[in-house]
Design a protein that fits this description.
The chain is built from 14 helices and 21 strands. The model is unreliable at 1-6, 12-17 and 162-168 (pLDDT under 50). Helix content is 34%, strand content 22%. By secondary structure, the protein is α/β, with parallel strands linked by helices. The longest helix is centred in the last third of the chain and has 25 residues, at 380-404. It is globular, with a radius of gyration of 23 Å. α13 runs parallel beside α14. The chain binds S-adenosyl-L-homocysteine, iron/sulfur cluster and FE3-S4 cluster. FE3-S4 cluster is lined by residues 29-30, 32-33, 66-68, 103-104, 190-191, 194-195, 226.
């Protein structure tokens, strides 16, 4: 879960009105929302909107929202409260400010958002944002638009792709959504309701978008999906393909240096995908494979449909195929019915696997999910205490992993300027930020380094 854009606080004085309208997009939640925000920005660019990082100069503010946990959804409403004040101030100056809510809160709450947040003009779900320009036109006539259909048409083929948006700088790394939605229905999770059922984009559409991104300067691609390894497609001859096949295909694109994918589900790690980890030099040795809990009882109640031992055995097979692979995961503490014993099983599993990085959360009751109906909800104080113990363990593993890189030699991909002049930040194969003395002209290059020191969140390297 990353949050990329600036916070909702007005920093610049209101800019004078110009002919070009400006849009400020605040992205919450997962990488799929980051990808979607870019696509919305592209769609709006065709309509004459220019993207801005300055809330003060925006004519349109979009909150691309996340509904995964209660806190995530509440953040949206408090941001909308602040935007309402800003809209009122604008009205006094005779200037327009339109406000749109997109993403998973939009999908989950729909009309309710209009009731709770009177300043909102449009509410657009994750499947319909290609209709955003049209919705804005309607909103400008005074209508309040809610469009949260699971659209029948394919939004991807309606959206301008990288090739048509070449003028926008893409940077060295890019996300590429290959799969959306989820049919797994874990009992804690809203995603099947907010993103709908599992849909894979066709092979050719993905290959074209990847080629366009690479010709626009992208060197590292991260394939995205709520369950990215559930991706499936067909080749020209109608042969069934899975994510492993897609990775072999993308690895052939000239100029592409690195491939990653996220988020995967243990049940969809097939042989072909494991083989891709063994064979493809471009596929980075890093795998985000959430397990959520180490207790079979809880895994069953979560409807994860695998046991802790099956997960451990799977990781063993993946490590045999790619010995230098690092693992990352997601954990939930305090799922209804979780006892101290269940929690101890989770701690044991973490000890056994050894994670390079992980995300962990207190269980958050989500209305409409089966988990919300369960009786033995865990006390908030117990959740807090368990989360602290779990995070202490995961943090010690992260530090140990970072320190284990000291003395190692490998390539880093130079991404962006560092904090000090003369320094750049590169990315290790294991997603760590690496500080190095380098020149901005080296952006996008692979540079061979030796690691000389490690911090909690980044590494320090010298050039070889
Ligand atoms: N598809 C991915 C996860 C997507 S959601 C998978 O199956 O692994 C990202 C993470 O948010 C989940 O892995 C889970 O750890 C966390 N999460 C989802 N719903 C949650 C809830 N109700 N409370 C707390 N954490 C939750
Ligand atoms: Fe949610 Fe489970 Fe689907 Fe992941 S697999 S998105 S946790 S329902
Ligand atoms: Fe959040 Fe929706 Fe992603 S609920 S985690 S933004 S799929």
């Amino acid at each position: 879960m990353t949050e990329k854009t600036a916070d909702i606080t007005e920093r610049a004085p209101s800019a004078p009105a110009t002919n070009t309208r400006k849009v400020f997009i605040k992205t919450y939640g997962c990488q799929m929302n980051v990808y979607d925000s870019d696509r919305m920005s592209d769609a709006l660019a065709r309509d004459g909107y220019q993207a801005t990082d300055e809330l003060g100069e925006a004519d349109l503010v979009l909150l691309n929202t996340c509904h995964i946990r209660e806190k995530a959804a509440e953040k949206v409403y408090s941001a909308l409260g602040r935007l309402r004040e800003m809209k009122k101030a604008r009205a006094r100056q005779g200037r327009e400010l339109m406000i749109g809510v997109t993403g998973c809160v939009a999908q989950a709450e729909g009309e309710e958002i209009l009731r709770r947040a009177p300043a909102v003009d449009v509410v657009i779900g994750p499947q319909t944002y290609h209709r955003l320009p049209d919705a804005l036109k309607r909103a400008r006539t005074g209508e309040r638009v809610v469009d949260t259909d699971y659209a029948l048409e394919d939004k991807f083929s309606h959206l301008p792709q990288a090739e048509k948006a070449k003028t926008r700088s893409r940077g060295v790394t890019a996300f590429l959504t290959v799969q959306e939605g989820c049919d797994k229905f874990c009992t804690f999770c809203v995603v099947p309701y907010t993103r709908g059922s599992e849909v894979s984009r066709p092979l050719q559409q993905i290959v074209e978008e990847a080629e366009n991104l690479v010709s626009a300067g992208v060197r590292e691609l991260t394939l995205l999906g709520q369950n990215v390894n559930a991706w499936h497609g067909k080749d020209k001859d109608g042969r069934e393909l899975t994510l492993g096949d897609l990775l072999y295909r993308l690895a052939e694109i000239p100029g592409l240096m690195r491939l990653r994918y996220t988020t995967s589900h243990p049940r969809d790690m097939d042989e072909r995908l494991i083989a891709a980890h063994r064979d493809l030099r471009l596929l980075m040795p890093y795998l985000h494979l959430p397990v959520q809990s180490g207790s079979d009882r809880i895994l069953k109640a979560m409807n994860r449909r695998h046991t802790a031992q099956e997960y451990v055995a799977l990781i063993r097979r993946i490590r045999e195929a790619r010995p230098d692979i690092a693992l990352s995961g997601d954990f939930i503490v305090g799922f209804p019915g979780e006892t101290e014993e269940d929690f101890a099983d989770t701690m044991r599993l973490i000890e056994e696997i050894g994670y390079a990085q992980a995300f962990s959360f207190k269980y958050s009751t989500r209305p409409g999910t089966p988990g919300a109906e369960l009786e033995d909800q865990v006390d908030e104080a117990v959740k807090t205490e368990r989360l602290e113990r779990l995070q202490a363990l995961l943090f010690s593993q992260q530090i140990a992993f970072n320190r284990s890189r000291i003395g190692m030699e490998f390539d880093i991909l130079i991404e962006k300027p560092g904090r000090q002049a003369g320094q750049m930040i590169g990315r290790s194969p294991w997603l760590q930020s690496v500080n190095i003395d380098a020149d901005p002209s080296e952006t996008g290059a692979l540079v061979r380094v030796r690691i000389v020191d490690a911090g909690n969140n980044s590494l320090f390297a010298e050039r070889l």
